[in-house]
Automatic annotation (TrEMBL):
<feature type="domain" description="FAD-binding">
    <location>
        <begin position="16"/>
        <end position="357"/>
    </location>
</feature>
<keyword id="KW-0285">Flavoprotein</keyword>
<dbReference type="InterPro" id="IPR036188">
    <property type="entry name" value="FAD/NAD-bd_sf"/>
</dbReference>
<dbReference type="InterPro" id="IPR050641">
    <property type="entry name" value="RIFMO-like"/>
</dbReference>
<dbReference type="InterPro" id="IPR002938">
    <property type="entry name" value="FAD-bd"/>
</dbReference>
<dbReference type="Pfam" id="PF01494">
    <property type="entry name" value="FAD_binding_3"/>
</dbReference>
<keyword id="KW-0274">FAD</keyword>
<protein>
    <submittedName>
        <fullName>4-hydroxybenzoate 3-monooxygenase</fullName>
    </submittedName>
</protein>
Length: 407
């Protein structure tokens, strides 16, 4: 872990109880929780405010996460504007199979694009709760994390000089490629990785969804998915080789594959529209253990990455943020160390459960496209069981919705 000293020509140090590195959903939620508790903090973000409020990301949010945001005063716009989803639909063997999870569990999903949530969280943190945030910072470095006086330094975008911030704790919420996880010495952390060996072509289309719910097409030629984002915008996924070139997927090929892989008796074909995003995601996961190192606490993708197979990434990040924000507030306002001491273990129980579900779901999505008759046969048996066995359906719904009570 880097223990370097700030440069001697730095500006006079500032002082905040907590420095949050990264202004994604996790970092902004931690900041909002701290401000609500009367704790000062500083959020550092490499991008501009406009960039983080526009970059396309996830949109499916678990009901438990929404309730967690609501309890912390962070869900007003979401509850007014988000779409409520109560079912999903599997398509395989040329047929449609609707899975009504609210009928099974009484719970549902919300669909609210991450850029809208980030915009809400930034507004609440900076404009309503008076939180300090610096955008466009460069060359962030962490110092003295094993002592009782850690600090974070960064190059100020206005002056070009290094600014030092002394703090009590650092919240690392800066994603998979951020500086906080990279600051942990390799011998202090175990990083477990898994590569699925497949890619997904991620598409964002200016077109209405062809159905009122999420669609999963389990096709011998590869998986296809439809995830509604709004009445005018739809997220699509197409299984492809890892590392595939998005330019090899022109408009005509994309829509032909979507029609074929999502095709089923009585189903409307996808409504075509301009493709405003097209990129290939290589499906892989990792988990960093532990998630706490001295005065540094990791959250979200800085600690773990779960492939978008199960739409769990943003949900995991927000679960982390609730625990970390509450634990930091308890420590700084009441002197209670219990939450911080148990933070890593509490987060990792959920992380590993979601990782296991992602692996299980990957076989459901991709097994028929492996070219292996045995795997294709067992995958179809698994799919049919979801619609013939109440216990199998209930187990899937619990994991899909994130409603397990054991966390």
């Amino acid at each position: 872990m880097e223990q370097t000293s700030p440069r001697l020509d730095s500006l006079a140090p500032q002082r905040f109880p907590v420095v949050v590195v990264g202004a994604g959903p996790a970092g902004l939620t931690v900041g909002n929780v701290l401000r609500a508790a009367g704790v000062d903090c500083l959020v550092l973000e490499a991008e501009t405010r406009e960039s983080i409020e526009r970059r396309p990301r996830a949109g499916v949010i678990e009901e438990r996460v929404v309730r967690g945001l609501e309890r912390r005063g962070l869900a007003r716009n979401l509850l007014e504007r988000a779409e409520l989803h109560t079912a999903c639909e599997f398509r395989f063997g040329g047929e449609r199979y609707r899975f009504s999870y609210r009928e099974l569990t009484g719970s549902h999903h919300w669909v609210y694009p991450q850029p809208l949530l980030v915009a809400d969280l930034v507004r609440e943190y900076a404009d309503v709760r008076g939180g300090r945030i610096r955008f466009g910072v460069r060359d962030v470095r962490l110092h003295g994390l094993d002592g009782d006086r850690p600090s974070v330094s960064y190059v100020c975008p206005e002056t070009g000089r290094r600014q030092v911030v002394v703090c009590d704790f650092v919240a690392g919420c800066d994603g998979a490629r951020g500086v906080t996880r990279a600051s942990v010495a390799p011998e202090r952390a175990r990083v477990a990785r898994h590569d699925y060996g497949i890619g997904w072509l991620a598409l964002l289309a200016e077109a209405p969804p062809s159905a009122d719910c999420v669609l999963f097409g389990c096709h011998p030629d590869g998986f296809a998915g439809q995830m509604p984002r709004s009445p005018e915008v739809t997220r699509y996924y197409l299984q492809c080789p890892p590392g595939d070139d998005p330019d090899d997927w022109p408009h005509e090929r994309v829509w032909a594959e979507l029609r074929r892989r999502l095709g089923a008796a009585g189903a409307a074909p996808p409504a075509e529209g301009p493709l405003i995003e097209k990129r290939v995601l290589d499906m892989h996961d990792y988990v960093t253990e532990p998630m706490a190192f001295g005065r540094l606490f990791l959250a979200g993708d800085a600690a773990h990455l779960v492939a978008p197979i199960a739409a769990k990434g943003m949900n995991l990040a927000l679960h982390d943020a609730f625990l970390l924000g509450d634990a930091l507030a308890a420590r700084l306002t009441e002197g209670d160390d219990g939450g911080l001491a148990g933070y890593s273990a509490a987060c990792l129980r959920r992380v590993w459960d979601y990782q296991e579900f992602s692996q299980w779901l990957s076989e459901l999505y991709h097994g028929t496209a492996t070219g292996d008759p045995f795997r294709a046969g067992t995958t179809l048996a698994r799919l049919r069981r979801l619609f013939s066995s109440p216990s199998a359906a209930a187990a899937f719904a619990e994991q899909y919705l994130g409603t397990a009570a054991r966390y």
